Amino acid sequence: MAGPELTVLVVDDDFRVADLHARIVSAMTGFRVAATAATLAAARAAVDEHPIDLALVDVYLPDGSGIELVRELRCDAFVLGAATEGRAVRDAMTAGALVYLVKPFSDTELARRLAAYTHYRRIVDAAELDQARIDTALASLRAAPPREDAPQHSVTRARIVDLLADAPAPLSAAEVAAEIGVSRATAQRYLAALVAKGRLRMQLRYGSTGRPEQEYL
Fold this sequence. Notes:
Elements: E1 6-11, H1 15-27, E2 31-37, H2 40-49, E3 54-57, E4 60-61, E5 64-65, H3 66-72, E6 76-81, H4 86-95, E7 99-102, H5 107-124, H6 131-141, H7 151-166, E8 171-172, H8 173-180, H9 184-197, E9 202-205, E10 213-216
Parallel strand pairs: 1-2, 1-3, 3-6, 6-7
Antiparallel strand pairs: 4-5, 8-10, 9-10
Helix pairs in contact: 3-4, 5-6, 5-9, 7-9, 8-9
């Protein structure tokens, strides 16, 4: 996504889960983790201190319900929780959550939803929207199949899918770009779309230093 990075607040009382979610966010192009929080109080303090575009919020927190936090927020939110009761899901959506993901879920699933969120933001950040664009934005969050690509785009997409199907190991966006003969940004855009559609999986490649790199399979 072109333009400023989308800032994310990760709220989970399990530091291992919070760290994993933060690593996935950090590995996604166009996103930056602004803060992590283990309690409602810490999350509220983080919101006061940082501009937040999207909050990833657990349901059960030591000092209250994450759903109540979502109700307070002036930013977008995903609820990531173990609660599967219909009432909890309904409460989360009524509170304003754009997405409800039931734990445990794969790294790819969160990456797919984040990629879908960038598509949603590209649409709704326009000055004005007609009904068709509003419907498209909301459908993207529900993982609805996007419209078919133009023929030349379909060829590039097919080449990437075939490349990864034949690769002996997962490839990064830079490696895909070099093999296909496109820019890294173009490769990243196609890869994110394919992850969002469920055609590819994303995982994190860890080096000795620095933030992890996305790789695709």
